[in-house]
Specification:
Layout lengths: L4 E4 L3 H12 L4 E4 L7 H5 L3 E2 L3 H7 L2 E4 L4 H8 L2 H7 L3 E4 L5 H13 L3 E7 L13 E5 L1 H6 L1 H7 L4 E4 L4 H29 L4 H28 L12 H18 L4 H16 L10 H5 L13
Parallel strand pairs: 1-2, 1-4, 2-3, 4-5, 5-6, 7-8
Antiparallel strand pairs: 6-7
Helix pairs in contact: 3-5, 11-12
The structure holds NADP nicotinamide-adenine-dinucleotide phosphate.
Length: 304
C-alpha cells in the first residue's frame, strides 16, 4: 500500500509533482489557493482537499510547494493546522534560504511532525525523470523512511546532511555558479556584438570552450579544498596571467561604452588577492577573498 500524499500548491511545479505521484500510483490529494488549478489534476485522479487542514489530516506525508516560505507560513501557522501536524511528515519543497529551512524544521518538529527540507534542481518538465536531482537535508530517518516516494520525484535524489539548511545552501551555491555563467554570457554578448562578432558565432564557440571552463572549475574546487593557493607545476594559469587577460575585458567595456559593473567588481577582487599574494599564485588564491578570510584560515569550517 503506497503512502497517502497531500500536495499543498498547484502552481507549475506543484502540479508537476502531483502528476508524477499519480503516475506512480500514489494516492494523492491536492490543495491550491486558486482552486481552479486543481481541476486538471482532479481529472487525472487527484482528490481535491477542501482545506489545508483536511488535506493534512487525510495524508501521511505533506509536500509543500508554494511561492516562498511566507506563503507556506500563511498556510501552516494556525492553531487548527498545528494540531493536524502531529505524527505527519512534512517535505518542504518551496525554495528558501538555509536560515528559513532551519527555523521551519524547528517549528515543524516542535509540533510533533517529521521534517525534510528539499531543493529541486530542475524545471517542472523534469520531475519524475531518472536523471533529475532533488536535494534533501534534515532528519535522515525521515529521508530513509520515505525514500521510495522521494525517488519517484527524481532518480538523482540525494541526501545532503542532517542540518536542515544544507540542501538549500547547496541549491544556492549551484545557482550562484549558474548565475555566474549567465551573467558572463550577457557580458560576453555585449562585447562580441560591440566588436561586430555575431551572437551565432559566440554561441557556436561556447560548446567548444565548455570542457576547458569545466576543467578550470573543478581545478579551483580541488585546490581550495587542499589550500593549494601558491602557483606550482600543475597551475593551469597564474593569477597574473588571468589578471592580464582580464584587463582586456575592462578595456573593451570602456572603449565601447558597455556596462562594466560586473567586471569592476571582479577587478576589485583581483586587486584584493594581489595585494596579499603574488601574480605567480594560482587563480584559486582568490578563494579566501570570498570568505573574508586570510589564506591560513581558509580550511577552517564555518560555524554551523
Ligand atoms: P508558480 O507556478 O508561480 O506557483 C506558485 C504557487 O504558490 C501557486 O500554487 C500559488 O497559488 C502559490 N502561492 C503563492 N502565494 C501564495 C500565498 N500567499 N498563499 C498560498 N499560496 C500561494 O511557481 P512554481 O514555478 O510552481 O514555483 C513554486 C516553488 O517551486 C517556488 O518556491 C520555486 O522557487 C520552486 N521551484 C520552481 C522551479 C521551476 O522551474 N518552476 C524550479 C525549482 C524550484 P495560486 O495558484 O493561488 O497563485
Amino acid at each position: 500500500m503506497k503512502t497517502n500524499v497531500c500536495v499543498l500548491g498547484a502552481g507549475r511545479m506543484g502540479s508537476s509533482i502531483v502528476r508524477t505521484l499519480l503516475n506512480q500510483s500514489y494516492p494523492t490529494s491536492v490543495w491550491n489557493r486558486t482552486v481552479v488549478k486543481c481541476k486538471p489534476l482532479a481529472a487525472l485522479g487527484a482528490k481535491v482537499a477542501s482545506s489545508v487542514e483536511d488535506g493534512i489530516r487525510a495524508a501521511d506525508i505533506v509536500i509543500i510547494n508554494v511561492l516562498d516560505y511566507a506563503a507556506s507560513d500563511a498556510l501552516l501557522k494556525h492553531e487548527s493546522i498545528t494540531s493536524a501536524l502531529v505524527g505527519k511528515t512534512i517535505v518542504q519543497l518551496t525554495s528558501g534560504s538555509p536560515r528559513l529551512a532551519r527555523e521551519e524544521a524547528g517549528w515543524v518538529e516542535a509540533h510533533g511532525a517529521g521534517y525534510l527540507d528539499g531543493a529541486i534542481m530542475a524545471t517542472p518538465d523534469f520531475i519524475g525523470k531518472p536523471e533529475t536531482t532533488l536535494l534533501y537535508s534534515g532528519s535522515r530517518e525521515v529521508y530513509e523512511r520515505h525514500k521510495a516516494l522521494l525517488f519517484a520525484l527524481g532518480g538523482g535524489t540525494s541526501y545532503v546532511g542532517e542540518v536542515p539548511g544544507q540542501a538549500s545552501a547547496l541549491d544556492t551555491a549551484l545557482l550562484t555558479q549558474m548565475w555566474g555563467g549567465l551573467f558572463g554570457a550577457l557580458q560576453g554578448m555585449a562585447v562580441t556584438e560591440a566588436e561586430g562578432v555575431s551572437l551565432d558565432t559566440f554561441r557556436s564557440h561556447l560548446s567548444a570552450f565548455k570542457p576547458v571552463v569545466d576543467g578550470a572549475l573543478f581545478d579551483v574546487v580541488e585546490r581550495t579544498k587542499a589550500g593549494r593557493f601558491a602557483g606550482d607545476d600543475a597551475t593551469l594559469a597564474s593569477l597574473g596571467a588571468h589578471h592580464s587577460a582580464f584587463q582586456h575585458l575592462l578595456e573593451a567595456c570602456e572603449e565601447r561604452g558597455l556596462n562594466a559593473a560586473i567586471p569592476r567588481a571582479m577587478a576589485a577582487i583581483f586587486q584584493e588577492a594581489l595585494s596579499v599574494g603574488s601574480s605567480d599564485d594560482d587563480f584559486a588564491s582568490l578563494s579566501p577573498v570570498f570568505r573574508n578570510r586570510s589564506r591560513s584560515q581558509n580550511s577552517e569550517p564555518a560555524n554551523a
